[in-house]
Amino acid sequence: MHEERGRRLPPLGALRAFEAAARRGSFKLAAEELHVTPTAISHQIRQLEEVLEVRLFERATRAVRLTDAGARLYPALRDGFDSFEQAVEAVRRHRTRTATLSATVAFVARRLAPLAGSFRTAYPDWTLRLDASDHPVDLDADADAAIRLGPGSGAGLVTEPLFQDRYALVCSPRLGIAGPADLRDAPLIHYDWGIRDDPLAPLWRDWFARAGIAPREGGLSFTDEIHAVQATLAGQGVALLSVHLVADELALGALVQPFGPVLDGHYYQLVYSARQRDRAAVGVLREWVMACFRGAARAQS
């Protein structure tokens, strides 16, 4: 059985030193390129000459010149190192990099997940990781950027406004609600806003006050905004929901906004660490998020 023989090559460092010196015509310039001393280049080439048992350079005071043996060796090494460089660059270009964007569970489910394919189209060499969490994450360790709702984000963070949230009465068209009188028998859908004493929290009492309608109590209550959306889509009642989170359903007619005021909420903001602002992952997330929500910002201007 044939046994494969290992490669019989001189040390790679010596071959690299020779190729650089032959290409640059100087031990000094080769040393600068390889970030070593001219003495180290001279030592590597002398080692290669000893292994090959042939002189590769004619040495002069200020320059070096290839011998016939060196001239035969150089083209093969030059072409080989060119191929190495091209292969390494190809691997570098096609390596998978991950950009992690954090947002609330509702925002990821309702707005970011349906847009995720556009990220892959715009940045084919990147993987988008969506971190769904209703609690702020560490933007120096656990995510590259976040989309957050509300004022302020803490010291050391950069915030860029995206668009203002707005809340309206929405319901399934199957309920046939057209005016205030139709609300008498319609259950109110509530969800736990989670921030106590927030003046911009979307509360039914504020909507009734703005609409000039006597307030009502009772109905259905959920601890999660997504569940409140699902119940509204199923025709279980009327809800005070973010028009941005149900924008697709409003556009398709699965939900309607029959009447009444719209309450202003907080701004959605893109947030990232000032210490990480120059990272490539932060840059691609910023470009993608701004492109995705530029239309929402223009609609409010």
UniProtKB/TrEMBL annotation:
One of its GO terms (biological process) is DNA-templated transcription. Pfam families: HTH_1, LysR_substrate. One of its GO terms (molecular function) is DNA-binding transcription factor activity. Residues 10-67 form the HTH lysR-type domain. Keywords: DNA-binding, Transcription, Transcription regulation. InterPro entries: LysR-type_TF_proteobact-type, LysR_HTH_N, LysR_subst-bd, WH-like_DNA-bd_sf, WH_DNA-bd_sf. The keyword Transcription regulation applies. Coiled coil: none annotated. Belongs to the LysR transcriptional regulatory family. This is LysR family glycine cleavage system transcriptional activator. It comes from Pseudoduganella flava. The lineage of its organism: Bacteria, Pseudomonadati, Pseudomonadota, Betaproteobacteria, Burkholderiales.
